[in-house]
Amino acid sequence: MLFSELGLGPDVLRAIEDKGYTQPTPIQEQAIPCVLQRRDVLGCAQTGTGKTASFTLPMIDILASGRARARMPRSLILEPTRELAAQVSESFETYGKYHKLSMALLIGGETFTEQVKKLDRGVDVLIATPGRLIDLFERGNIMLNDIKVFVIDEADRMLDMGFIPDIERIVSKLPKNRQTLFFSATMPPEIRRLADAFLTQPLEISVAPPASPAETVTQALALVHEMDKRKALRHLLQTEDVKNAFIFCNRKRDIAVLQKSLERHGFNVGALHGDMVQSKRTETLERFKQGEITLLVCSDVAARGIDVQGLSHVFNFDVPLTPDDYVHRIGRTGRAGKQGRAFMLATPDDTKLVGAITRLIKREIPMIAIDGLETAEFGEEDSSSRGRGRGRGGRGAKPEARSEGRPPRGGREERAPREEAAPREERAAREERPAREERPMREDRPVREERQPRESLAAAESRRSNEPRRDRDRDRRRRRDDDDDDVPVIGFGDHMPAFMLRSARPRPSSEASTDPSQEG
């Protein structure tokens, strides 16, 4: 089937032809006619199958007629991340270039001023993240009572990020008479309940098993020790024909560490995670798409919906904590029918996580060996991860796991080995003793001498007054001799200054004057 057979308008078909597409994907083939019929749609398809175009193309035709009023958008598309929202806006610009539809992008990390100005002029298509949309709604800058088409994209990711309460609040502000399009890569029970609450008699479209990786992606698993993961990654980057690649980590702090490590070894690498300011995130992603950056170490913020043409490789430096994230991560490569390769580095501590992934995708991931590195085995204790909170023996281990292999501290189990170590003669002597020696009864015990009552203060004074007089006089003399303050000091005592010891010459009698009246 061709795009021209789906019922799209000539302007949209011309934009598709300019893009170089002729045949729709399975999800596009089934969803586009239903959206054009103004029916609610519940779409579930694996990542990389063109879900974005399956609702943007018919929305352009639906909104082609009509005009938006100030602060009252005509359609609303909710996205879980800023990168996804920006990518959907690019799709509208690409496919709607022959239309005069106005569009606004409401995401965090940008100033409110420009966004409010666009809303005041009126927008046909509003693309937003839930948090920023609620902020503007509470400020009175937007009204949602004129929404004709409402789209929830990547609904399972919304669930993972905790946006469901915000979405329920937004839906309560929308008009009842609207068209709702609900798209998700997986369909867990929670998403199914939300779809039943938001949609009215939807047409359910499922073109692939939920959470199944694309057949165009070649998967491989390398099982190494924790301390060898960086070396294993560098070996893969050097031996594989890597044009560009995403390298996924579970924690943001590990992203910076791995980026610096790869830079020291001469790789052209950048970083992308949720703590970066929006301007830096946009700049980094754009440089990666333009080929200025070859490797991008990132968190799961880049695992959903980001489309990079011709991405050759995906490396899972950390095994994802949830199996669905594995499918989304490797779905960044092998898109649009092209071939891609995905590698995952696992340690013995990741046994359960890898098992959950294989159960979800219903296949075993082929294992490979890294030249020059010892291949670990699942289930063994990875001693290299001790002290970092991973595996048994680390800070995150259970108390019983940390004490494994150590002798117990105290208790009955500890006394038995000590008895076995005692000499045989002592053990035999103890066995001959009665199990419990009879202790004497209370009346058989020797009676302790009764303590004499304490001497009163008056009796003590009387006793001291009757002591021999010579003892009291001796004490008084000792105290008097020790007290130097009562001894008078005449003159300089024994410490006479030297100048006082010199003899003075007698004054001549002629110079002496005894008459006071003759003194000058």
Could you tell me the strand content as a percent range? 5-15%
Q: Which fold name is given in CATH as the topology of the largest domain?
A: Rossmann fold
- For the record, the CATH architecture of the largest domain stands as 3-Layer(aba) Sandwich
Number of separate strands: 14
Which spans have pLDDT < 50 for at least 5 consecutive residues?
Answer: 386-423, 434-450, 482-487, 516-520
Basic shape: extended
* CATH domain class name of the largest domain: Alpha Beta
Number of domains: 2
Radius of gyration: 45 Å
Trace the largest sheet across and list its strands.
Answer: 3-4-2-5-6-1-7
Q: For the record, what is the CATH homologous superfamily label of the largest domain?
A: P-loop containing nucleotide triphosphate hydrolases
Largest sheet: 7 strands, parallel
Computed structural class: alpha/beta
Average pLDDT score: 80
Helical region count? Answer: 19
Distance between the termini: 144 Å
- Percent range for helical residues? 25-40%
